């Protein structure tokens, strides 16, 4: 299958949900396309995340990508001086409107900061609790089952995949790679399809190899391939904020060039009968702090 861009939107913060999501919905409506929105619905502690990550390399990335410009000035305080505001409770209308506009709704996190930092090392019981809290809320808003999840920061291991398998997800998007596959854990093929993200994100590309806002769309479009389905992640905080006009232009260009933009659910439905078994492993990744889950051709040991 070729000529496809499956579009995934990660929503990490209160501001991204209340401002970025409606802006992206407006852009999608203009182009008559739909995407899969992964919502974070518990407390917004992303400010804590930024402070915790304040190491020299991360500080450089923050400057490179102008984090305060991307996330808004309040992000550096969010979850530091006061408990994070509950994102979902304040944005029921936004989530419903996104769904009613024809977009797919998926589960990203209860607490994005906590999940990204600790989910892989939590006890299975606490992993389940994070899923139950977030999914319980999303189901109540959506009025039905949530078919998909995406681990914050692509941080996933075998234990987490096994816990996810207890929930009624049809497919997940937890890793980086090239082609959809069914993960093998402890020699057993899981029933939940995995849809890897194939393209780099804005914050991974900006400031590296001469990428600037002026040439970003050229560079991103040049990475599209006909050899397998492309999967792109945009962030409500970036492409729904400071980068909105640039992303609008990206969609204009790819649609004019004949690319078919679909939700991850549509891609999953097209490949679910033919996708092979596969593996994932934690690994370093260009432009990202720490290790994240990457698709591999052969089995490897992991925790
Ligand atoms: Zn995220």
Q: How are the SSEs ordered, and which strands pair?
A:
Layout: E1 4-11, H1 14-31, E2 36-40, H2 46-52, H3 56-65, H4 67-71, H5 92-100, E3 104-109, H6 112-118, H7 124-142, E4 148-149, H8 158-164, E5 171-172, E6 182-185, E7 188-189, E8 193-194, H9 202-205, H10 216-222, E9 230-235, H11 238-242, H12 244-256, E10 260-262, H13 264-271, E11 277-283, E12 292-296
Parallel strand pairs: 1-2, 1-9, 1-10, 2-3, 4-5, 5-8, 6-11
Antiparallel strand pairs: 6-7, 11-12
Helix pairs in contact: 1-5, 1-12, 2-6, 7-8
The structure holds zinc ion.
Zinc ion (ZN) is lined by residues 10, 12, 108, 112, 152.
The CATH class turns out to be Alpha Beta
User: From the helix content, strand content and strand pairing, which structural class follows?
Assistant: alpha/beta
Radius of gyration: 18 Å
The whole-number mean of residue pLDDT values reads 90
CATH architecture: Alpha-Beta Barrel
Question: Strand-and-helix sequence, N→C?
Answer: EHEHHHHEHHEHEEEEHHEHHEHEE
What small molecules does this complex bind? zinc ion
Number of strands: 12
Q: What does the main sheet amount to?
A: 5 strands, parallel
Shape: globular
- Taking pLDDT < 50 over at least 5 consecutive residues as the criterion, the unreliable ranges are none
């Amino acid at each position: 299958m070729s000529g496809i861009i499956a579009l995934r939107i990660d929503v990490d913060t209160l501001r991204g949900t209340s401002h970025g999501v409606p802006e992206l919905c407006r852009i999608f409506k203009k182009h008559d396309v739909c995407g899969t929105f992964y919502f974070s619905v518990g407390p917004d502690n992303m400010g804590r995340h930024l402070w915790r990550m304040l190491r020299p390399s991360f500080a450089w990335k923050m400057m490179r990508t102008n984090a305060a410009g991307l996330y808004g000035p309040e992000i550096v305080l969010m979850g530091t001086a006061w408990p994070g505001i509950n994102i979902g409770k304040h944005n029921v209308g936004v989530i419903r409107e996104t769904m009613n506009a024809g977009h797919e709704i998926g589960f990203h996190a209860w607490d994005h900061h906590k999940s990204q930092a600790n989910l892989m090392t939590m006890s299975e019981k606490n992993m389940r609790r994070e899923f139950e809290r977030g999914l319980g809320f999303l189901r109540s808003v959506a009025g039905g089952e949530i078919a998909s999840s995406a681990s914050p920061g692509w941080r996933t291991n075998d234990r987490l995949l096994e816990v996810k398998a207890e929930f009624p997800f049809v497919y997940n998007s937890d890793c980086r790679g090239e082609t959809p596959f069914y993960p093998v854990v402890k020699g057993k093929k899981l029933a939940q399809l995995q849809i890897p993200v194939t393209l780099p994100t804005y914050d991974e590309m900006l400031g590296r190899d001469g990428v600037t806002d002026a040439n970003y769309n050229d560079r991103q479009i040049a990475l599209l391939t006909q050899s397998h389905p492309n999967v792109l992640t945009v962030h409500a905080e970036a492409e729904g904020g400071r980068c909105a006009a640039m992303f609008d232009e990206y969609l204009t260009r790819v649609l004019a060039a004949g690319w078919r933009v679909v939700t991850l659910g549509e891609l999953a439905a097209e490949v679910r009968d033919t996708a092979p078994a596969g593996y994932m492993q934690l690994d370093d990744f260009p432009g990202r702090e720490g290790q994240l889950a990457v698709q591999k051709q052969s089995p490897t040991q992991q925790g």
